[in-house]
Amino acid sequence: MRLTHPGLPSPLPAAGTPVLTLPPAFEAFYATHVRCYQAYARAHFARPDTADAVLRTAFGDILAHWSAIVAALNPTAEAWGCYSTHIRRHAHSLPLRTDARLQYQAIVLHHIVGCSVADAAATTGEDPSKIRHVLQTWAGTGGPGERRTR
Fold first, then answer.
1. Is 4's pLDDT higher than 80?
2. Which stretches within 1-150 are classed as H helix?
3. How confident is the model at residue 7 (pLDDT cuts 50, 70, 90)?
4. In this structure, are residues 106 and 124 in contact, taking their beta carbons and an 8 Å threshold?
5. Cα separation of 46 and 142, whole Å?
6. In which band, very low, low, confident or very high, does the pLDDT at 11 lie, cut at 50, 70 and 90?
């Protein structure tokens, strides 16, 4: 499996590159989360090709740490932590009025990208009630063009 998905550009492997068999759990994780991860990256970069390149390298980082991630108490949250750190290293934060990292991430996923509360929770590895709470307590909730939290 390549670290790509329909709609993501696929890097061409170099001649003589060995074929890598990925763990089935990683393949399932990738298939489950790539759309929200891609949308989150694209919210932070002006060019989709730049966002997609950063997305690929971030999934490479997740794969490189896969054994530690699946050994964690909450593998989804551990993978999201690795991913969101990768995005922060390569992009500036969006101009949102919040100092809380999870609240920022939930705002981007829900209000900017359009993920449901359930999808934002599944992406970050947090409970939906926690995501709902950080969205409801955000001072920017209710502004023009912002979606209501469901």
1. no
2. 24-44, 48-64, 66-71, 75-90, 101-107, 117-124, 128-136
3. low
4. yes
5. 26
6. very low
